[in-house]
Structure formats: structure tokens, C-alpha cells
Amino acid sequence: MTHFLRSDASPDGYTLEDILIVLRKDILYRATKIMDDPRPEARKVLENNIQIMSLLGEAINLAEDSTTILNKAFGPASQKDGPRIGTE
User: Fold this and answer.
1) Number of other CB atoms surrounding residue 37 within 10 Å
2) CA 48, CA 84: separation in Å to the nearest integer?
């Protein structure tokens, strides 16, 4: 069973891209809080956050691509009884 992601056992769960988008938004919010802090620690954390946001952007694109592939091949998940691919 998944904790956050949509599945047969959790039909009201989130898509992977939804979770990643919220994470990116939270990181961006936190980054704005430290962007004017001149201390080296704050600058390094800000640099790390910028890199993480970039990687999350790539992950979001991959997750959206997977959703597009599944929707095109098998229709929306809400229209299926059981998983679209894989095993139960």
C-alpha cells in the first residue's frame, strides 16, 4: 500500500507530479526566506535549494510524461478497476 500516491488501495491519493509540485513550491517558499541572508551557510543552503528545485523540475516532467503515456495507452486511472500496468 502506498502512503501518498494514488493506487487501488488509495484511490484518493496524489499523483507523483502533484506531490513533487507541492514540494518544489515549499522549497521555493523557504528559499525566499533566506535569499537576503549573507552568511555563508545561508548562501550554501540557498544554492542547494536551487539545485534541488531544478532536479524536482526534471522529476515533474518525467512524472507528467509517464502519466501522459499511461492515459494515452490505457485511459485515465479513474476509469479502471485495478492497476493500468503491473500487478495488484
Assistant:
1) 12
2) 37
Residue 45, pLDDT > 90, answer yes
Each domain of the chain, given as residue ranges in start order, spans: 16-70
The interaxial angle of helices 16-34 and 40-74, nearest 10 deg, is: 160
Residue 49's CB is within 10 A of a number of other CB atoms, namely: 18
Angle CA 82–84–60, to nearest 5: 120
Quickly state the pLDDT bin for 13 (edges 50, 70, 90): confident
Straight-line distance from the first to the last Cα atom of the chain, in angstroms, rounded to the nearest whole number: 10
Q: What is the pLDDT of residue 6?
A: 81
Which grid cell sits at 45?
543552503
pTM of the shown model: 0.81
20, 63 contact by CB (below 8 A): yes
